[in-house]
Design a protein that fits this description.
The complex is a heterodimer. By secondary structure, chain A is an alpha+beta fold. Chain A has 10 helices and 8 strands. In chain A, strands 1-2-3-4-8-7-6-5 form an 8-stranded antiparallel beta sheet, with helices on both faces. The chains are: A alpha+beta, B mainly alpha. The interface between A and B is large, with 43 and 48 residues.
């Protein structure tokens, strides 16, 4: 049996339609028996109806509407032109062989392109051995993002909420094929883990094994005693380095925060490492 | 396929611009910043639209994106606006606000339609956010709790207190309007 005090506590949830059917029935039964609560209910309902009808509804300025449309259209065009380029860039097998031969001949005597995974592992190792100090030491993702934003030409977004067992130590700017890459390093309990990211142009991800989820192909490899997980997404290439693949997967929360479900491909955590 | 996705994006996201702008205003307090926030949010939503699960609340998805961008851009300010325990949560402060609402003299001269906005402006951020998310945007308690990263009980408490404060402010304006009305009638009679 519901008392008047509980009734007062549940009145707004009842009016907002937030109660279960059973709770709502209990409330209705109480209202039929108790004239005081019934009067309170009528007053509250009147007030909430009045309030909901009178609260100002925001209206976006016309200029903003146009601005947003333009930005979306531009993003759409960019996406479509990238796709067209990809289609045009699929050559026949013969052309590929010829192109590879030409490139091979031209490349004779030159240093081979450095792989992003190698750079990630070397930087991680260098940092662990105290040979490569951090440019910025901070556990505040926003501060680290601000530091990098002035020095790189691509956006980075780090989850702001504290993630269990994952503590940012700082970052370092790394040169990769004439452009800048972001190196971030983390503590995960007793373990150390690093993330290297840069723009995807010209990046070749090496990895013995790969798996594809939604539109993204992930590569796993072992390199100098470390395990790496690498992938390309939204024009950016990422490499995570640590001692174990299972740690690498947990580190996705660096960017995604605790909100795993919304942005991480389905089945990611089910893939065996 | 892409055209279909673009069409769906326009269908689902563009109608939320007004609500997004309102949320941006609540977070930043400035029109120009709110507009930038809306633009960044829509652009990010476009890029990550494949992650949106059809059939779920698109507006809640967009608000979450906006909150994350705001947190990234202005961590300190974001904590002040979004943190559940910084402003207006203690009983003593709430009592103060209730007394202020009862006796506030500088607020006693508006007509009702303007009163609501003014009363809303006088609410602490944490109360105002919840009242607007519920009573203007129509989010459920659960959606608000997830959006603001706070327990459902906190949402219920803030909503109840926020609405009670609004009622007090509005009653104060109403009493003043009634007094003025009677005064004007008396003046007419005397004349």
């Amino acid at each position: 049996m519901l008392d008047c005090q509980t009734m007062g506590r549940l009145l707004h949830p009842y009016l907002d339609g937030e109660l279960s059917a059973r709770e709502a029935l209990d409330i209705q039964a109480h209202l039929e028996r108790c004239p005081d609560c019934a009067a309170l209910y009528r007053n509250e309902k009147l007030f909430l109806d009045l309030l909901k009808g009178a609260l100002p509804v925001p209206v976006a300025p016309d200029g903003l509407r146009q601005r947003v449309r333009k930005v979306v259209e531009a993003a759409g065009q960019e996406k479509r032109s990238r796709q067209r380029f990809r289609l045009m860039a699929v050559p026949s097998l013969a052309l590929t062989v010829v192109a590879l031969l030409v490139i091979g001949i031209l490349a004779l005597g030159k240093k081979p392109l450095q792989d992003l995974v190698d750079v990630a592992v070397n930087t991680h190792q260098g940092y662990l051995n105290d040979n490569l100090p951090l440019d910025i030491k901070s556990s505040d993702p926003a501060q680290v993002v601000r530091w990098f934003e002035k020095r790189i030409n691509f956006p980075i977004s780090l989850g702001q909420e504290p993630v269990k067992n994952l503590r940012l130590r700082g970052g370092r700017l790394v040169a990769f094929q004439g452009k800048n890459a972001v190196f971030l390093t983390y503590e995960m309990g007793q373990h150390r883990l690093s993330l290297l990211m840069t723009t995807a142009e010209g990046v070749n991800l090496s990895g013995a094994e790969g798996f594809k989820l939604e539109q993204t192909r992930f590569y796993q490899s072992a390199n100098h005693g470390f395990q790496t997980l690498s992938w390309i997404q939204e024009g950016l290439a990422y490499v995570i380095v640590s001692e174990k693949q299972e740690l690498n997967k947990q580190a996705c929360m660096i960017c995604h925060g605790n909100d795993r479900q919304q942005h991480i491909p389905k089945g990611f955590y089910d893939k065996e490492t | 396929m892409d055209e279909e996705k673009d069409r769906l994006f326009e269908e689902l996201v563009l109608p939320c611009l007004d609500a997004l702008y309102g949320f941006g205003l609540l977070l930043t307090g400035r029109s120009s910043e709110a507009e930038d926030l809306v633009q960044d949010t829509v652009l990010r939503a476009y890029r990550f639209f494949r992650h949106y699960q059809q059939g779920t609340n698109c507006k809640a998805w967009l608000f979450t994106i906006m909150k994350h961008i705001f947190l990234n851009q202005a961590t300190q300010r974001a904590r002040e606006v979004l943190c559940p325990y910084l402003s207006g949560e203690s009983d003593a402060l709430w009592e103060d606000l209730m007394n202020q609402a009862q006796g506030s003299s500088d607020l006693r001269h508006e007509v009702f339609s303007q009163d609501i906005q003014k009363a809303l402006d006088h609410l602490p951020n944490s109360f105002r956010l919840v009242v607007v998310l519920k009573d203007v945007e129509g989010f459920s308690y659960d959606e608000i709790a997830k959006l603001l990263d706070c327990p459902m009980g906190t949402v219920m408490s803030r909503l109840s207190r926020g609405r009670n404060l609004l009622r007090r402010f509005l009653q104060a304006y109403g009493d003043q309007s009634a007094e003025k009305h009677i005064e004007r009638q008396n003046e007419r009679r005397r004349a």
